[in-house]
Write a structure and sequence with these properties.
The complex is a heterodimer of chains A (228) and B (299).
Chain A (H helix, E strand, L loop, with lengths): L1 E8 L8 E8 L4 E5 L6 H8 L7 E6 L2 E2 L8 H5 L2 E5 L10 H10 L5 H14 L15 H13 L5 E5 L7 H16 L3 E6 L2 H7 L2 E6 L2 E6 L9
Helix pairs in contact in A: 3-4, 3-5, 4-5
Chain B lengths: L5 H14 L1 H37 L3 E5 L6 H13 L3 E7 L1 H12 L17 E6 L5 H9 L4 E6 H44 L1 H10 L3 H45 L8 H31 L3
Antiparallel strand pairs in B: 1-3, 1-4, 2-3
Helix pairs in contact in B: 1-8, 2-6, 2-8, 2-9, 6-8, 6-9, 8-9
The chains are: A alpha/beta (228), B alpha+beta (299).
Bound molecules: adenosine-5'-triphosphate and magnesium ion (MG).
Amino acid sequence: MILFSHVNYSYQKGTSALKDISFHISKGEFAFLVGASGAGKTSILKLIFRETVAGTGRVAVLGRDLTRMRRREVPYLRRQIGVVYQDFRLLPEKTVAENVAFALEVIEAGAKEVKRQVPRVLNLVGLGDKGERYPHQLSGGEQQRVALARALVNNPPLLICDEPTGNLDPDTSWQIISLLNQINLLGTTVLIATHDKDVVDRMNRRVIELQVGRLVRDDSKGVYSHEA
Amino acid sequence: MKLKNLSYYVKEAATGIWRNRLMSLASVIVVVLTLLILGAFTLINLNIQAVTDEIKGQVEVVAYLEEEAETYEEVGRLREELRGLEGVQQVTFVSRDEALERLRERLGDKAGITEGLERNPLPASFEIRPQDPEHTAILAEAISQLEGIESVDYGQQLVEQLLAFSRSVELFSYTVIVFLGVISLFLIANTIKLTVYSRRRQIGIMKFVGATDWFIRWPFILEGIFLGLFGALFTYLLLLAGYGILYHRASAWLYQNFLSVQMVVPELAGRELLKFLFVTGAGIGAVGSAISLRRFLKV
Ligand SMILES: Nc1ncnc2c1ncn2[C@@H]1O[C@H](COP(=O)(O)OP(=O)(O)OP(=O)(O)O)[C@@H](O)[C@H]1O
Ligand SMILES: [Mg+2]
């Protein structure tokens, strides 16, 4: 599903954000990407949905070699990857249902498809009754669920989340992670970049750790850090 | 562009125009100014064209006599000489009295102004019809060399003058149009830039959920086209009204005072303008937003 092979990446000449990163995530896995701030977590996610392109090495996602993918193919790659951010990125002038529908509309899905999929994902994330609300009328946890619903509305085989619990209290964080786990059980591959030690330790799933741009650990049943 | 997305694009474009309505208005006004000049020039040119065509059809050399030549013998001699020239089909003499009579006829109810004249100021003339209209200029040249002929006049001269006038109008218009055109493009580009800016969040989301570049661009291109079309519509209405009034006032007067010059009727002029203004307006809009998107929309 995701393959990194000796990937190097730098934002500016002379500096290096990622150094010789290699790992493989199979279909149906649930994995955490951990590391201190600036370790390179977001950089890896950006390479996966091809916001950026690896300097050297190879990145393959969903069987496609991203280092050789053409620009105009990128949107079709992204339709297969759901992305969730820490800051939710919802449109304030649209309702919850409209925010979710928007993701389908802009990839040119038909009205029928929108009518069918939007209620389905809103129910899946537990917001079936809040579709008509606006984002500012929701709690942080609920807003994150909307973002999640939007990421899932197109039934992507891969879901990547960049610190999805960064702005949430521990209880709400745990609810979101449980929801992600549930989605994983339905067959979606899930990769989560996080600082959230509690969540990682409690889940006891695969952990890939980065330190200043290097991959230093890859445990199939790991905790946030060995030292702690 | 896929047709099924059209309603989405149009909705987004309309929202964009409304959100930045002040900038939109400014762009439309400058488009109107640009198109007004462009349109006015088109109208002038259209009329010059019509007049030129009309005059070209009336090929006739008018040779005015010197005053001393206006004796019975001289007129007879000149008539024979003119008939003897190569390529002459018909020669008609118009005496001074006849010339005055024609003028009175043309003036109609205003003919009274000629009553006060102490003596007839009009010269006598010959009207010479050439066999081949193409050779009018050569024939006129030959006639002007004849003894007793003061000057010659023929349609071609007027045609050339009109064309020269048309060319200078054209040159002037182009200069102003280029200047205003650049300003319109700049203003439209700037309006689109504001729209892009106010939607950067939405554009960001569209990108990461997998909207194609063109799906993201179309609403902005359409927004520019709409601004251009609004400009074209206002210009069209203004010019049509203006031309209608001018036609009403000037057309009859022109017809009476200058040959049989006629202005192009407003309906026909309007049809010409319509195509021209709308295509140009839409073009300015599309190019303006394309410029903006190239610079500000990194999709
Ligand atoms: N757009 C950018 N331009 C230049 N350098 C950048 C850019 N984005 C990130 N970096 C640098 O790349 C390195 C890795 O950044 P990255 O955002 O991947 O870290 P992260 O692990 O996601 O950190 P955080 O936990 O704070 O989100 C950092 O040193 C950062 O300063
Ligand atoms: Mg980050």
